[in-house]
Each structure stands twice: as structure tokens, then as C-alpha cells.
Amino acid sequence: MDSIKVFSPGSVTNLSCGYDILGFCLDKVGDTITVTKTPEKGVKISSIDKYNLPTNINQNVAGIAAQAMMKDINLDYGFDIKIKKGIKPGSGIGSSAASSAGVVFAINKLIDSPFSDIELIRFAMEGEKFVSGSYHADNVSPILLGGFTLVRSVKDLDIIKLPNPKGLIATIIRPEIELKTSDSRKVVKLKVTIDKMVQQSANLAAFISSLYTEDYDLMSNSIVDEIIEPDRALLIPEFYNIKDISIKSGAIACGISGSGPAIFALSKSNKTANVILNKVSSHFNSVNINYNGFVSIINSEGVKVID
Amino acid sequence: MDSIKVFSPGSVTNLSCGYDILGFCLDKVGDTITVTKTPEKGVKISSIDKYNLPTNINQNVAGIAAQAMMKDINLDYGFDIKIKKGIKPGSGIGSSAASSAGVVFAINKLIDSPFSDIELIRFAMEGEKFVSGSYHADNVSPILLGGFTLVRSVKDLDIIKLPNPKGLIATIIRPEIELKTSDSRKVVKLKVTIDKMVQQSANLAAFISSLYTEDYDLMSNSIVDEIIEPDRALLIPEFYNIKDISIKSGAIACGISGSGPAIFALSKSNKTANVILNKVSSHFNSVNINYNGFVSIINSEGVKVID
């Protein structure tokens, strides 16, 4: 095999109660990445179809992740990377992670999979570090493992694949503003009270339990964020109205996806997820804000080969 | 039925990663409480066998919990309470909670169980508030529900009974010092960094997952406390040596039980739990510190009627 094409999906992280450690994999929306072996050693990005992203491998997350991988193997050939972006950078649904994770997944397949999923997460995180300034595995983990994931430790690469309750479905809606992860991180307070920590961790713990027991009432009660959401919500136009509309339309919960501006709502049925999408769309139309929205299952498979 | 005798066990809370919200129920060590109907209305504590605890119902947790319960029902008779304490106050294994939970459980049984477990937790918490200054359900919940419990919200009384992995067993060892919960709470820092909050909540979330999956490696990695343990450990003689001995003897994890001074270790077998008890006992003997120790299963049943 000399060439491979993969589809690397978007991902939703934080989910209100799991700042920096919780995430799930989206379906259908993502990057399409073609990697081809080249006689020349090293990595080259020959094309990225949009968003003016740099093709310099030292300035592009996919190039950085691929180079991190190259350091661990000795090959007498190289790779050419072509990326068709399906996620706009700064959306809050893991645009950079889709490229980082997708490229290392593709290269690993091309060289007969010497690396485990956990090792691929380690390489993909190098791309994440480049954009956010520190190591995060919350987006790349669900892309590479599928479904819901919990990052217990980035340092130890202790990452848990969680259950994916049947029928759970997401509505994603993104007001058309760009919010850089680095800017969105700046509004997060550096310290929290012990009482808030206890409440936040109780919610996360309860959410984990709800995934195992498929207790949607508990899930609804636990997808709550009293620490980060109040500050980040200020950066997202109409956030509280969207949340209110989603909950009233039957969402289990609604919150900021990643560092925003994308907003996620979780529902128990495709029908509810689409009702939410329609109502939220109407609202954005009524206030003259451009937006982009879709419904997605929780993708258990994650990144995959498509050709 | 005019009289009932119940056994209300001790409990271990916090478990390193779940400060104020996580707990499990012990077996065999606990209070024996006899409640008898009286023609006179109201509640009376006619005897407590030791530790010079007050029998004044306004100064005793059992009396306070029972009175909270009385406010919600209209009875033309009352109750006499006799308590045989099996847990020394200030031990760190829920002495006050055993009395509070036991008495409301007993009264409820005597009056044909009009109250749910959750309502009993609400009454028992009044006793806890009296001793610690604020509402906590982390000790009373595992006593009343059995097994492991998670308190998502004290305010909403949202309390989750977690799985009890087969074969999991605890060693409890308590240096003979008294540590008041209120004093032990004073050393807890009021604020934590967001990074520590993320790490602590990741550990708690991973621990919850480990209970569902019976993944003992994950459990071991997640019973970690970088926030409270470092400060509270200073109040407990030989804590780090005990922890070291326990882990080296095969414990899954070891930490402070509740607010201390009791120390818990979790093991996968009765044999390991007893090896830990023996080795830790030898250590306390060698440094001339009095101690008290035992091995206990995780008690799935909780408080129970014994006569």
C-alpha cells in the first residue's frame, strides 16, 4: 500500500463537567486526509484545500504530529500529506485535533501499524501542544479511540474509553465567529474554591456513572459547569438563549463544545436532536447571526480508512 | 413491633479522590442501636455505653437526626434510644454518621417505613451538620444505601449507589489519636488551582469507571489525592510509612479515611488485606504507637435490623 485516504472526524470536549479531560467523537463532519509514500525521506504537506492554513510542516499541526512520529521510527522513505479540511479552525469541535490525529493514524496504517492507539495519541498531542501551548488529549483521544473518552493522565497516557449509550445523539451549532483556543483559555480562572471543585468533580463522577447505567436524568443533572462556562459564555453570542431553547426542546443537556464557539446539545433521539437544530437555527436567523449546525451520532469508530 | 435493634456500620469516605462525596460502608464495626416506642411523645436517649457522649437530644447526633425526622411526622407516641458505640468518635470511620443513620433507620422501621432511603439521608445529615458545621452525606449515604456511594448533590439529595466489585476488601488501621472532623477540615486549603482540580476530578472520574469495569490497575492509579492528603497527612502519625507498607504489601491503594486519623487500604483478596494489617500493626508496634485495626468487606447491605 503506497497511499491511504482517511476520514478524521471532529470531536466535542469538556461537556461542561469534564474540562480538559472528557470528549466524544463526532460523525461525518471532519477532515479527509490522503497520505502517500514518497521516495524522499521526511514529511511534506503538498496541499490544504482551505482556510489558508500553513503547509510548512513546522507550522502545521499535522506536520508537527507526523514529525513526532518520524522520530520514533527509521524509514528510508517519506510521506506526502494532502488535507481537505471539513472543520473550520477555531470552531470548538477539534479542527486541529482532526488533522493531527488523522495524519498519524494514516501513516501508522501505511507502515503496518507498529504503533498502538495510545502511542498515536502521544504523537497527535504534539500538534495540540503547538496550537494551545500545552499537552491535551481530550480531542485526539475520542478521534483515535472512538466514542466517549476520559483522559485520566496526559503524563502517563492513561486514557479510558467509556461506554457509548445507545441512541444518544448530538446537535452541534456554531455561531460564525472565530474563537482561538488560546484566547478562550485566557478567561478561565486560575484558581477555584474547594467547594466548587467538589461540586464540579461530583458532576463529572455522576456523568461517568450515567454513561455506564444509561441514566439520562442523572446525565442531565451532571452536565453542569459552574466554573468555566460562566466566563466563556460571554464570548459566545446568544449562548444562554441557545441553551434555554435546547433544554426546552428536550435536550438532555447543552453546553459549550471545547473552548467554543460551538455549542453542543445531547438528546435521546434523532427527532429531538433535529427539533433542537431547527429551533436554534430559527433563533440565530431571528437575531441575524450566521451559524452552522448539524446533528451527529456519537461515533464509536472514530477515525477510519475510507479508500 | 414496639422495639427494634439495628446494627449501623462504620464508613470510609473521601477515598483520596472523592473529597466530601465518595464513601463505602464497612462491615461488623459499628454501633448497635435499640429504639423502643414510649407512651410519651418525643425522643429520649436513655443510654450510651461509652465515650462520655451527651445523652441530651439537642447535643447528640442521634437525637438531632431523630428530631429532624419527628418534624415530618405526627405521632402520638415517642421513642427511647439506647446506643452501644462500636466506633470511637474522631476515628475517621464515621462514628457520628453510624449513630445518626442508625437511629433514623430504626425509627423508620418501627413506624412501617414511610420514608425512603433518600429521606433518611436527609434526616441523618442533620446530625452530621451538628458535628461538622455543614451538610455532608458522604458517610450517611453508604450506611443507608450500602456499598459505594457518590453524592452528586447534597442540596438536591442526588445520591448514586455505585457498583461493589467482587472481592474488594478493606484494611482499616487507626493510630490511637483523636482528630476532630472540624479540626481536620481546617487544614484543607480554601482554593485550588484549576490544574489540580482537573487532575483530581480526572482521578475521581477514573475511579468511578474502575468500579463499573473492575479495572484494578485503573483503580490503583486513580485513588490519588494531591490536594487534601498532603496537608492532612501531617496530622496522622506515620501516615506515609503506613501507605508505603500497604502498597508494598499488595494494596490497590491506601489513603486517609474520612478526615483521619484512620487509614484505609484496599485489596483484591482477604489474604492481602490481612498481610497489610499484620505488617502495618508490626510497624506501629515498632514505633510504640497504639493502634486499632481490622479487615472489612465492602458491606453491600449497610445498616440492618439484627433482632
List the SSEs and their pairings:
2 copies of one chain form a homodimer.
Chain A lengths: L2 E12 L3 E21 L3 E7 L12 H10 L7 E7 L10 H16 L6 H16 L7 H6 L2 E6 L4 E5 L6 E7 L5 H6 L4 E3 H20 L2 H7 L6 H4 L6 H10 L4 E4 L6 E5 L2 H17 L4 E7 L6 E2 L2
Helix pairs in contact in A: 1-2, 1-3, 2-3, 6-7, 9-10
Distance between the termini of chain A: 11 Å
Q: How many domains comprise the coordinates of chain A?
A: 2
| SSE sequence of chain A, one letter per element | EEEHEHHHEEEHEHHHHEEHEE
Judging from the principal axes of the Cα atoms, what is the shape of chain A?
globular
Uncertain stretches of 5 or more adjacent residues of chain A? none
**CATH fold category name of the largest domain in chain A:** Ribosomal Protein S5, domain 2
Q: What is the oligomeric state here?
A: homodimer
Mean pLDDT of chain A: 96
Level of helix content of chain A?
Answer: 25-40%
Cα-atom radius of gyration of chain A? 19 Å
CATH architecture of the largest domain in chain A: 2-Layer Sandwich
Which chains make the largest contact? A-B, 38 and 38 residues
- Tally of individual helices of chain A: 10
Largest sheet of chain A: 7 strands, mixed
CATH class of the largest domain in chain A: Alpha Beta
SS strand fraction of chain A: 25-35%
Give the structural class of chain A: alpha+beta
Number of strands of chain A: 12
